[in-house]
Amino acid sequence: MLKEKLLRPLLSFLRGVFFKFNFNIVKIYFDKRELDNFLKRIYPVTTEHELIRIGPEKDSGYLVPDDMEGITSCFSPGVDFKSLFEKELFDTYNIRSFLCDYSVEAPPIESDGFHFIKKYLNSYEDDVNMVFENWVNSIEDKNDYILQMDIEGGEYDVITLTDKDFFKKFRIMVIEFHDLDLLFTAAGFRSITSVFDKLLENFMIVHIHPNNIRKVFKYNSYEIPPMMEFTFLRKDRIKEYEHTPVFPHLLDTDNVKGIKTLALPKIFYKS
Questions:
Q1: Domain span at residue 187?
Q2: Quick check: 133 and 166 in contact, CB under 8 A?
Q3: Phi, psi dihedral angles at 128 (to 5 degrees)
Q4: What is each CA distance from 224 to 40, 72, 150, 179, 221, in whole angstroms?
Q5: Where are the alpha helices (DSSP H) in the chain?
């Protein structure tokens, strides 16, 4: 969402101040065993589907598995500055995109493949909000979909309120998760891990890319990038896999130019 993205540098600064002030709270709620077990569950894997990059070589470009045949639609809540990911999906793969965001009047560019609705995702329906499942089910299309979600922290509520089997409509999902530094708090850990556990029942993580707009949060030997893009592939599309041993991927690029490159910390993958 455009308005929220303009506030990211300020929010990043305020969160850093918050954590320094509340460092003792972090210590109280930190559980090494539970965090280690969670990190092992989200190790990315390499499958028979090579990763390709769709979108620009910066923010709004994503790595996805080269398994596009048969996908007809992308659902993209949270409209980006350029919507180039969705444009390339249509121009290259003839995949139309359904976009929603109440904070803007329309996508920033025009495309015959765009279908926009001025609403937020939420747990109820009104003139401003709509339910994720109702939005997807309103499209008369029974083929596989792509989900590209960047809704500034709202992803946790949307995923929590959505039935786990509903996500099987999506073959590929790219979700930017925010506030991952809250893994060091009791409430944050429960919220974040429950969301990932729901998705991992039917999906495997095939890539993780940290957003370099925010600095890594460090505690003892742990380094947690607060914002990271996760790419998921549905398990029935995977015949063989192994843990990805090396990051970054050759196609990875910084989200924001001019800010120090942020490599994925080794605690997030099996090297």
A1: 2-268
A2: yes
A3: -110, -25
A4: 14, 35, 19, 10, 10
A5: 2-6, 8-21, 23-29, 32-41, 84-93, 132-137, 155-161, 186-200
Residue corresponding to tokens 């990190």: 39
Residue with tokens 């929220």: 4
What pLDDT is attached to residue 271? 83
Q: What letter does residue 265 receive in the DSSP assignment?
A: P
Token code pair at residue 235 = 């398990």
Q: Rounded to the nearest 5°, which phi and psi values hold at 77? A: -75, 135
Q: Are 192 and 156 in contact (CB under 8 A)?
A: yes
Domain CATH for 182: 3.40.50
- Give 56: exposed, middle or buried? Use CB within 10 Å, 0-12, 13-18, 19+: middle
Confidence of residue 141 (pLDDT cuts 50, 70, 90): confident
pLDDT confidence band for 126 (50 / 70 / 90) = very high
Smallest Cα–Cα separation from 214: which of 4, 17, 16? 16
